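Researcher: Quick one. two chains, 523 residues in total.
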Amino acid sequence: MTSEIILQAIVTGLMMGLIYALIAAGLSLIFGLMDIVNFAHGEHLMLSMFSSFWLWSLFGLDPIFSIPITILLMAFCGVITHYFLIRYILKAKMLIQICATFGLSIFIRSIAQLLWTPDFRNVDKPLLEGRLEIGSVFIGQPQLIASLVCLVAFIGLYLFVTKTETGLALQATAQDRHAAEILGIPSNKMFAIGWAIGLGCVGVAGGMMANYFFIFTDVGINFALFAFVAVALGGFGSIIGCLYAGIIIGLVESLGGLLIDPSFKLLYVFVIYLLVVIYRPQGLFGRY
Amino acid sequence: MLLDVKNIDVLYDDFQVIWDISINVNNAEMVALLGPNGSGKSTILNTISNLVHHRNGSIHFENTLISEIPTYKRTALGISHVLERRRVFPHLTVMQNLLLGAWHPRAKKELNNSLSKIYKIFPKLEIRSNQLARTMSGGEQQMLAIARGMMGLPKLLMIDEPFLGLSPMVMKDLIKIFKNIVNEGISILFVEQNVRLALSMADRGYVLESGRLVIEGKSNDLIDNEKVTKVFLGN
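Model:
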């Protein structure tokens, strides 16, 4: 095995990792804000890929141009999810909350299968195509752009949460909802904003992946699993932790696949997850 | 009259914890809510903030009925509430905590004024402004919580157990600060278990027992009242 192949695996892993990171950041934001795990996160990713697909197939909009629309649609979807489902279960027992978002995931997937059939689809001849060759490493152009866009979105999210007034209010609500409310910060509004941003992140990732990934109704399942692992690995509620965790997962997946056996790709990631849960349950950057 | 609470009942599910209680606070007055553990003192403050809803009765603030106004709109009216056990945002800095205290537009406009005022009252907060709140001592966190409440430019400052876990030195400082706050025309309604301490500071007091009002009056009249001693020492 040559060093070039390993370098190739590292580059591929990094690019995938940045996408995982952004998906996980959305999950982590929602969880940190209101202690609710969005088990429908993968289905939301699927929806955003379909949004990109239909905008291309019906209106001829290339995924790279329809990204803003997909983000807005997903943010809107987040607000609706909060308004019609989540706000009713905020004070409910944990099991009820789990069932609610898990039920939502099944609901979305079933509706999607009903409407769009379980067929595999892809965007034909997108603007982003082909690959670059740097030295002996091949980098798919759509993959590269997707991961860079995700990185930029991630940095934007981080700056928003840490530097803006609304971000500060989000953090305050996450740390102590009642104390924030008593200072005049409406937590219901903050929760809606959190859902909008959380699913907006998924919109970016899904919209960019529509360029090169097969689009089908079960596509989100593995991504959601990885997002859960990333959130646990990075530390619950820590956004910056998601970045490191996403990259670690991407690297473990591709290097493990290369060095050991590609058919056990998922296994390596979950071994990491188990090790974290056993030896560092608060995650790399966790506060809890 | 600044705050007028009339004949309220409060129930947690079907369990009644407050029975027909009326209290009021005048402008620039310090009022103490007294009573043993579980007598409903904190619940009353939480009801005034609408963290808990009341049944029957009414709550008026500056002659406006506020019973139905949601919690987050009450700081803008001029009610600040410092919750029990301080409840500062642990992972935010002192400065960020203070900024969040000035959330409604009127308070935001006065932000710089309020900050310099707060720093004069609590000089330690200026020194520590970039420190995370959770790294401060209990006394400092209590100062921060009160300062954060002041940032909302309250007319009524409600403080739940301000002296809990504080050293006598810090307590002394805090008592002085309370007096200064009242001298500026802000009313304070506070919850306390230590009767002598509370009545030595407050203008008036209300004594509760198991959710019912036992006696109310001027501090001087309450301090040696038999009924009061009975509530706290049993029969």
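The interface with chain B takes residues 165, 168-169, 171-172, 175-176, 178-187, 287 of chain A (CB under 8 Å).
Researcher: Thanks, that's what I needed.
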